[in-house]
Amino acid sequence: MIDDVKAEAEGKMKKALEAMKRDFQAMRTGRASPSLVEPLKIDYYGTPTPLQQLATVSVPEARQILIKPYDTSQIKAIERAILASELGITPNNDGKMIRLILPPLTEERRREMTKLVRRRVEEGHIAIRNIRHQGIKDLEELENEKMITEDQHKRGKEMLDDLTKKYVAEADALGKKKEDEVMEV
């Protein structure tokens, strides 16, 4: 019973970390990366479609992203999605492909990005703590239904606390790594 609660909580905590990692991949650092534009949804004949389904995305240079649509008639739609995104990059369109030139980040923009990273880490902490809280509630229900003893409840709570500390530390480590990446000139 306790192991089930722990396994469920751990699975949810892993998912919370994965969501944080995905958010970090979409954050712009000094380097070009296909993950910056892959989450973009393009209006493809009225249907929001992920960019990677409509084009190949490559990084020919450290500060450049190249987008080659499979259907060149979609260049304008891709361009609109890039302009509407939070990337802050103006696409260069030659009729066959789109080039995104990433300007170097200013010191001010780097500081804003680190604030965003910290905010996202704090959101991760909150998600992990909420999962712990739900696990403790589940343990209390099991104890109230006489399915586990008070000692088992206590042991289960300690296991959840240890799990929470482990995942909060992992979230902090991910955040620190992303901050270092953002501040790297």
Chain-wise SSE layout:
Layout: H1 2-25, E1 41-44, E2 47-50, E3 55-61, E4 64-69, H2 75-84, E5 92-93, E6 98-101, H3 107-144, H4 150-183
Antiparallel strand pairs: 1-2, 3-4, 4-6, 5-6
Task: Write a brief caption for the model.
With 185 residues, the chain is α+β, with helices and mostly antiparallel strands.
Shape: elongated
SSE string, helices as H and strands as E: HEEEEHEEHH
> What is the class of the largest domain in the CATH system?
Mainly Alpha
Q: Low-confidence stretches at least 5 residues in length (pLDDT < 50)?
A: none
Beta fraction = 5-15%
Q: How would you describe this structure to a colleague?
A:
With 185 residues, this protein is of the alpha+beta class. It folds into 2 domains: 2-25 and 106-183, Orthogonal Bundle (Topoisomerase I, Chain A, domain 4); 34-101, Gyrase A, domain 2 (2-Layer Sandwich). Helix content is 57%, strand content 15%. The chain has 4 helices and 6 strands; from the N terminus they run H-E-E-E-E-H-E-E-H-H. The strands form 2 sheets. Strands 3-4-6-5 form a 4-stranded antiparallel sheet, with helices on one face.
